[in-house]
Prior knowledge:
By secondary structure, the protein is an alpha/beta fold. Helix content is about 35%, strand content about 10%. It has a six-stranded mixed β-sheet, with helices on both faces.
Amino acid sequence: MQRARLPEPCWNEAVSLTELDRVGARIEACVRCPRLVAWRTEAAARPPERYAGEAYWARPVPGFGDPRARIFVLGLATAAHGGNRTGRAFTGNPTASLLMRALHRAGLADRPVSEHAGDGLRLHRTWLASAVRCAPPANRPSPAERDNCLPYLSAEVAALEDLRVIVCLGGFAWQAALHWAGVRRKPKFAHGGEHRLGNGLVLLGSYHPSPRNVHTGLLTEPMLDEVFAQARRLGGLA
């Protein structure tokens, strides 16, 4: 797929980040879930050999991106040696690599890699975050841990005044978004499936860009490209 051309200018430097900064500070200071606090600390203290000696973030990870975002990409949870290490959502692991290549091809990121918080990555009309902001054991947060994090999703969505669509990466993120929105008769998750919320936002489902889903063929890069083309249309960016 040919990469969409970024419009000029891509980012409005005059946009205030004050409210998003305040939300981010609250997220970073959160200690609501004792199990997650313990696990994110343990993961930082016992890194795999490839990350030995690195200073880990080891705190909840706030969202990242363009304050004028029309597309919110919502993941499952912070990765123990991804965002928990780097301090930025979808950075420094194989899932981030696949996602960032797709965002770059869609014209929503200025480069196809997300390596560390100081790498200069810029997003266009896109915001990245996870439903659960700390790394959970076995990548499986509990319903209570999910619910403890949902107020932060509310705060970020409220601060992103141009938002139109939330891309839910996987069934967990889809269910978390439906629970957050108070949807009673929950539509089934489907890759490319849409559900319009009462506030006008559209939920858009996508298989999670995990190495397992890619290796088994459940998700391919063209399938991910199709979802972000769909997101661009829903966000008025096509």
